[in-house]
Amino acid sequence: MAEAGTGFLEQLKSCIVWSWTYLWTVWFFIVLFLVYILRVPLKINDNLSTEIVC
């Protein structure tokens, strides 16, 4: 009976670790998507091109 409880805890820990990994991956892609969408309002392209020219 105790072994089943230990296995459950290990499985729960593994699940938590994987959920954090997926959460960070999703967060990273959301940030990239927002930068892509907001590149025109933020004028990231213009700022980079003016710094390179100068």
Condensed summary:
With 54 residues, this protein is mainly alpha-helical. The chain has helices at 2-37, 39-42, 44-53.
The shape, in one word, is rod-shaped
Distance between the termini: 72 Å
Oligomeric category: single chain
Main beta-sheet annotation: none
Mean pLDDT over the residues = 79
Radius of gyration using CA atoms only: 22 Å
Number of domains: 1
Runs in which pLDDT lies below 50 for 5 or more consecutive residues are none
Strand/helix succession: HHH
Top keywords for this entry?
single chain; 54 residues; mainly alpha; 93% helix; rod-shaped; transmembrane; transmembrane helix
Would you write up a description of this structure?
Pfam families: ST7. 93% of the residues lie in helices and 0% in strands. It is rod-shaped. The protein contains three helices and no strands. The chain has helices at residues 2-37, 39-42, 44-53. The protein has 54 residues and is mainly α. It has one domain (2-53). The model has no long low-confidence stretch (mean pLDDT 79). 0% of the residues are buried.
